[in-house]
Amino acid sequence: MATRIKICGIRDARALDAAIEARADFAGFVFYPPSPRAVSAREAAELGARADGHIKRVGLFVNATDGEMAEAVEVGKLDVLQLHGQETPNRTAALRSRFGLPVWKALSIASAADITRASEYRDAADFILFDAKTPKGTLPGGMGVRFDWNLLAGYRGPVEWGLAGGIDAANVAEAIASTGAPLVDVSSGVESEPGVKDAGKIAAFCRAVRAA
Ligand SMILES: O=C(O)c1ccccc1N[C@@H]1O[C@H](COP(=O)(O)O)[C@@H](O)[C@H]1O
């Protein structure tokens, strides 16, 4: 089966159009104000409408409140919720039930023990995203940090899963070969600077995934 692609941290129409043109499967919109990729409600509304019918819209949240998420779901017409904070299995299940949308739970990985945490979410999340643990005091993602992909060699999880963290066009073939990831998620690897997506890098990334 073809490896699915998520381009995360899209903030403008040009980047969104590049992701659609390159036939990415998911566009990620960041609803986390400290991130240089955070979108306002107005930007989310414009991007959500533009994406409609062309690419699935993933809202990324970090320990957000129900109210913050409800506004984002409505204005951005979100198809998927990605939880990138310390959301527990109970909180994850509650959000899935409240919004009636598929929920992706991101787990921060630095060791084999971190990967076993996926089983805690077997009844709570629809999808697990394995991302690298980032340095203390920095953003919990979008930092271009990768973990040892060999930790996922031969992985068979209780729910669908994907790989994130430090992936780019130059290393995505290695990432897929090492892990067998059914989905890859990229943010800083397709940027010219933090928060600024590069249409050429988005196209090159998607080509590299398909060639892998
Ligand atoms: O992208 C962000 O700004 C961000 C902020 C807070 C939590 C997660 C974030 N992004 C996610 O992190 C992965 C990995 O990013 P990168 O490719 O290493 O730069 C990204 O795909 C998003 O899902």
UniProtKB/TrEMBL annotation:
EC class name: isomerase
Matches recorded under Gene3D superfamilies: Aldolase class I (3.20.20.70)
UniProt keyword Cell cycle, yes or no: no
GO MF terms, alphabetically ordered: phosphoribosylanthranilate isomerase activity
CDD domains the record matches: PRAI
Pathway named in the protein's UniProt entry: Amino-acid biosynthesis; L-tryptophan biosynthesis; L-tryptophan from chorismate: step 3/5
Biological process, per Gene Ontology: L-tryptophan biosynthetic process
Keyword NAD belongs to the record: no
EC number: 5.3.1.24
Keywords: Amino-acid biosynthesis, Aromatic amino acid biosynthesis, Isomerase, Tryptophan biosynthesis
Catalytic activity: N-(5-phospho-beta-D-ribosyl)anthranilate = 1-(2-carboxyphenylamino)-1-deoxy-D-ribulose 5-phosphate
InterPro entries: Aldolase_TIM (IPR013785), PRAI_dom (IPR001240), RibuloseP-bd_barrel (IPR011060), TrpF_fam (IPR044643)
Domain annotation N-(5'phosphoribosyl) anthranilate isomerase (PRAI): ranges: 5-206
Alphabetized HAMAP family for the sequence: PRAI
Family the UniProt entry places it in: Belongs to the TrpF family.
Name this protein carries in UniProt: N-(5'-phosphoribosyl)anthranilate isomerase
Provenance organism: Croceicoccus pelagius
